[in-house]
Amino acid sequence: MVREFSIAGHKIIHQDAVEALKAIETASIDLIFADPPYNIGKDFDGIHDKVDESEYLGWCWKWISECERILKPNGTFYLMNSTQNMPHLDIYCRDRFEILSRIVWAYDSSGMQAKKFYGSLYEPILHMVKNLKSYTFNADDIRIEAKTGAKRGLIDYRKNPPQPYNTTKVPGNVWDFARVRFKMDEYENHPSQKPEALLERVILASSNPGDLVLDPFGGSFSTGAVAKRLGRRSLSIECNEAYIKIGLRRLGIPSNYTKDDLEKKKIRKTKNLSKANRDKDSVEQAIFQLEL
Ligand SMILES: C[S@@+](CC[C@H](N)C(=O)[O-])C[C@H]1O[C@@H](n2cnc3c(N)ncnc32)[C@H](O)[C@@H]1O
Asked: What CATH number is given to the structural domain containing 56?
């Protein structure tokens, strides 16, 4: 079953991603942000995310090929995945795209602490384009504070005459954004919601107002919501009805759902476990990660 919901400039498609991507016009998308299930056993409201590695990668090749087809020649493609899968995806993508940056989204997690190895506290993101000579990168729209100039007030004596260091800079490839927590206003009932601040940087840097931003795995629809706030157009695909409802509310798209159906009722993503259980939980998670 395919269902489509739209409002001026914004569309949500309720369908399997590969099938929905096949129906999108070739070279029609300015920016793609793809954050698929990572095949690490998450429960996406009834869809269990764990298959053989070869099956998972074979599925990735299908939707990545479609993304390649529908991306404009001057378009940009961001691809997120787990640390375990990313080497495979990097090798596949570097034959098809120009990889501009290998970004690390680093975050703190005091809740999950591995004790027998170094716990995973980052997620990798590939930043890719089709054409090195023609792509959007609005460096001035994403500048951040440069501590050398702004905090320490140092003078650059290599310049003649000496000048203060810049107070802002273009971010490097290590991004420090807090994960979305229960107490944050933007929190939605989704197990892998990405922060609006991360999407804001991606969309400001790699698209212009009016451009079309695609998210093949909408999830909590952070991409669509931020694209709308920043004056871009958006197209989001998601196969799970529970999450479609989140998207309809976040993007303000009319539907037959009642207000109550779409109301935000916050449920914690993680259970509030006792300390003993928390320790057991981290060991199980550690074993699980090692099995991958
Ligand atoms: C990692 S989450 C995306 C999270 C999203 N970036 C956010 O910020 O909320 C992956 C999403 O893909 C959806 N999904 C899984 N398999 C899919 C498929 N075959 N077609 C479309 N969506 C799928 C899941 O339901 C889940 O919501």
From this structure: 3.40.50.150
For residue 75, the enclosing domain spans 3-291
| 237 CA closest ligand 1 atom index | 21
pTM: 0.91
For 160-208, what is each residue's pLDDT tens digit?
999 988 899 999 999 999 999 999 999 999 999 999 999 999 999 999 9
Query: Which residue's C-alpha comes closest to atom 27 of ligand 1?
Result: 219
Q: Give 221 Cα–ligand 1 centroid separation in angstroms.
A: 9
The total number of structural domains in the chain stands at 1
Any ligand 1 atom below 6 A from CB of 222: yes
DSSP conformation letters of 164-219: EPPSEE---SEEE-PPP-TTSTT--S-TTPPPHHHHHHHHHHH--TT-EEEESS-T
Nearest CA to ligand 1 atom 7: 193
Say if CB 136 and CB 208 are below 8 A apart: yes
Which residue's alpha carbon is nearest to atom 19 within ligand 1?
16
| Distance, CA of 232 to chain centre | 17
